Amino acid sequence: MANPTRPVSPHLQIYRWHIHMVLSILHRTSGVALAAGLVLWVYWLAAAARGPESFATAQGLMGSPLGLLVLFGFSAAFFFHFCNGIRHLFWDAGIGFALDTVMRSSWFVVGASAVLTVLAWVFACTL
User: Fold this and answer.
1) Which pairs from 66-75 meet CB under 8 Å and 24+ separation?
2) How far apart are CA 78 and CA 29, in angstroms?
3) pTM of the predicted model as reported, rounded to 2 decimal places
């Protein structure tokens, strides 16, 4: 008989969370967010193809505060997925598996994706 107070297998309540665990989950989540964002991008392109009235409606939606928040989230997901994907390419080559390297590269991914997102929005707002 198994001990009923002991978990059958390890789960997230037992593990101490580390940055690389969080980034692994966020990498998958950002991939899903990018797929959902592409649906909005196709809507925007289809509205542009339908004519000026449809495009104005789409631009109004994208330019609303909620639309800008979604676009900011989409760009943050893009840059995070991009930076973390580069880290995964290094891992595929067998580079960067030492624990200190994993921790440094994890924080570098967080910082680089934040900086790239802010730079993209600053650049876009100055156009």
Assistant:
1) 70/37, 70/40, 72/117, 72/121, 73/33, 74/33, 74/34, 74/37, 74/40, 75/117, 75/120, 75/121
2) 11
3) 0.86
For Cα atoms 124, 125, 127, give the angle at the middle one, nearest 5 degrees. Answer: 70
For residue 5, pLDDT beyond 80: no
Element (H, E) at 7: none
The CATH number of 20-126, from 3.40.190.10, 3.30.460.80, 2.60.40.10, 1.20.1300.10, is 1.20.1300.10
42-75 pLDDT, tens per residue? 999 999 999 999 999 999 999 999 999 999 999 9
Report which residue type is found at 40.
Answer: L
Q: Residue 43: enclosing H or E segment and its boundaries? A: helix 19-50
Q: Residues 6 or more apart from 79 whose CB is under 8 A from it?
A: 112, 113, 116, 117, 120
Q: How far apart are alpha carbons 74 and 83 in whole angstroms? A: 14
